[in-house]
């Protein structure tokens, strides 16, 4: 019995074109990786070497002073990390759920308020209430001054991400699938939790990645709403450390009294060490989302 085997598709691209494409992708990859590597190396470079030679992939003089200055009070850094991890995990989970609950109804053609809710979504993308009104709403209206919720609620719904999820639902969840589930007696909540969400893992993972990056890198809301030092996230704490170091370097009287201290005080290397510490968790999380991230960005274009 002869088993049918599909014909193998031969690569019609010439070897020269293959070489050019591969070389181009290698250059693009290096353009993404080399800046990160340079940041990592500069963070271990002594301040004298940076002043004499500038940024270099081969530091003339190695030093750990930037990390020693940054982790001098390691308990504060650990507490800020815990705050950032808690805010990022809780905020991302709540954000993905709320945006899915918003995007799914406006993706349904039979939903009567679809146009009105879509208009409200687009309106918030075009017009912003401003910082003063935002501060008054969250502090006086909701009473969230110096509260962790003040770091979660402002980023809970991102209109552009809701549009991406709505497009995914429209192109992936066929109306016949929903209709068949309704005929079998399933309600809207059951359809959403048992059918829509399991079929939407790519876009949910993509939005989770966007939310993780957004919450982890957020420092402005902490500057605006947080007053207690023990509630600072890691990004806000690092900005405060950098401002303190810059203040010491700009203090002329202190520089005249302690010239050796000022000369060894890190500046550029400290900024790079802060970048390394700040980007670490994102580099750890991204590989888990990569497969769903690529699929979530392409499936709508393929089926649309």
From TrEMBL:
<keyword id="KW-0812">Transmembrane</keyword>
<feature type="transmembrane region" description="Helical">
    <location>
        <begin position="189"/>
        <end position="216"/>
    </location>
</feature>
<feature type="transmembrane region" description="Helical">
    <location>
        <begin position="148"/>
        <end position="169"/>
    </location>
</feature>
<dbReference type="Pfam" id="PF00528">
    <property type="entry name" value="BPD_transp_1"/>
</dbReference>
<feature type="transmembrane region" description="Helical">
    <location>
        <begin position="270"/>
        <end position="289"/>
    </location>
</feature>
<comment type="similarity">
    <text>Belongs to the binding-protein-dependent transport system permease family.</text>
</comment>
<keyword id="KW-1133">Transmembrane helix</keyword>
<dbReference type="InterPro" id="IPR035906">
    <property type="entry name" value="MetI-like_sf"/>
</dbReference>
<feature type="transmembrane region" description="Helical">
    <location>
        <begin position="20"/>
        <end position="44"/>
    </location>
</feature>
<dbReference type="InterPro" id="IPR000515">
    <property type="entry name" value="MetI-like"/>
</dbReference>
<keyword id="KW-0813">Transport</keyword>
<keyword id="KW-1003">Cell membrane</keyword>
<feature type="domain" description="ABC transmembrane type-1">
    <location>
        <begin position="81"/>
        <end position="289"/>
    </location>
</feature>
<keyword id="KW-0472">Membrane</keyword>
<protein>
    <submittedName>
        <fullName>Carbohydrate ABC transporter permease</fullName>
    </submittedName>
</protein>
<feature type="transmembrane region" description="Helical">
    <location>
        <begin position="80"/>
        <end position="104"/>
    </location>
</feature>
<feature type="transmembrane region" description="Helical">
    <location>
        <begin position="116"/>
        <end position="136"/>
    </location>
</feature>
